[in-house]
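Propose amino acids for all 111 sites.
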């Protein structure tokens, strides 16, 4: 168990709640959340706060499968004119083998 002090930013072990440790009474810690609600936890269930990990953005299948888009690739995708995107969408959807064969172009992630 980590040593905690009043005023520390803490979270429960599951990471579902976080806030400032405002009081300790024996083995119970009182955590004030950002919305002002004070929640009590056993001290053994509290840990120093850690920033949540950001999920990685992945490409669809193809030559770039499972690679992150770098800033240059994102900028290139953002520069594609709307008229060209509409033509790509029309061609993509026309190449489908029928309903349910692949995701419609409009439902694909922007990346």
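Proposal:
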């Amino acid at each position: 168990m980590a040593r905690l002090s009043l005023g520390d930013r803490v979270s429960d072990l599951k990471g579902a709640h976080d806030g400032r440790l405002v009081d300790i009474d024996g083995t119970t810690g009182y955590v004030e959340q950002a919305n002002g609600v004070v929640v009590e936890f056993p001290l053994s269930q509290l840990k120093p706060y850690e920033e949540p990990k950001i999920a990685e953005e992945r490409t669809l299948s193809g030559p770039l499968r499972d690679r992150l888009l770098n800033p240059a690739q994102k900028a290139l995708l953002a520069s594609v004119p709307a008229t060209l995107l509409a033509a790509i969408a029309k061609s993509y959807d026309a190449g489908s083998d029928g309903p349910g064969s692949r995701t419609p172009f409009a439902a694909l992630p922007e990346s």
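Strands lie at 9-12, 18-25, 28-32, 38-42, 46-48. The radius of gyration is 24 Å.
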